[in-house]
Design brief:
- This protein is α+β, with helices and mostly antiparallel strands.
- It has one domain.
- Helix content is about 55%, strand content about 15%.
- It has a three-stranded antiparallel beta sheet, with no helix packed on it.
- The longest helix has about 35 residues.
- It is elongated, with a radius of gyration of 22 Å.
- It starts with a helix and ends with a strand.
- Keywords: Coiled coil.
């Protein structure tokens, strides 16, 4: 059996898994940035029957109690 045919897909899979880890870390970082923006926003809400959403930062909260 040809060894390179096994190694190439394995290397590619490992690279993809590494990319996934990096992207997940980036997602976490971006979610923190969004949260910070939303916490410091002077909200301007658009309200519906069950939610109100800030038109500036897209913060959403339920008004259905």
């Amino acid at each position: 059996m040809d060894q390179t045919s096994i190694d190439e897909p394995l290397c590619y899979v490992l690279k993809l898994k590494n990319d996934i880890v990096k992207l997940n870390q980036r997602v976490v970082q971006l979610e923190k940035e969004v949260k910070s923006i939303q916490e410091n926003c002077r909200h301007v809400f658009y309200e519906t029957h069950v939610t109100r959403s800030c038109i500036k930062c897209h913060y959403v909260e339920s008004t259905y109690y």
